[in-house]
Amino acid sequence: MIEKVKQLSTIEQIKLTVISNNANAKKLYEKFGFKTFSSEEHAIKGKGKYFAEDQMALRLNDNLVEKS
Questions:
Q1: pLDDT, tens only, 3-54
Q2: Does 65 fall in a domain?
Q3: How high is the pLDDT of residue 3?
Q4: Are 43 and 26 in contact (CB under 8 A)?
């Protein structure tokens, strides 16, 4: 799927969200080149417990320039 998206010139990056303590999922995403760019504490509440989320992105275009 990622390889197909890379062929589309209009898509510059893919973003996803993962529960911060899900080490296996994060490791898998990192294997494909995703990098964490943000974290949100208490992002999800389930069964009376809060969970943090990490936002990750895979940049498909190496020429992307971050704006400050």
A1: 777 777 778 899 999 999 999 999 999 999 999 999 999 999 999 999 999 9
A2: no
A3: 77
A4: no
- Does 37 reside within a domain? yes
Q: Which domain holds residue 15?
A: 2-59
What's this model's pTM, rounded to 2 decimal places?
A: 0.79
Please count the structural domains in the chain.
1
- Distance (Å, whole) CA 59 – CA 19: 20
Give 24's contacts (C-beta < 8 A, 6+ positions apart): none
Q: Six-digit token pair at 21?
A: 């303590």
CATH of the domain at 10: 3.40.630.30
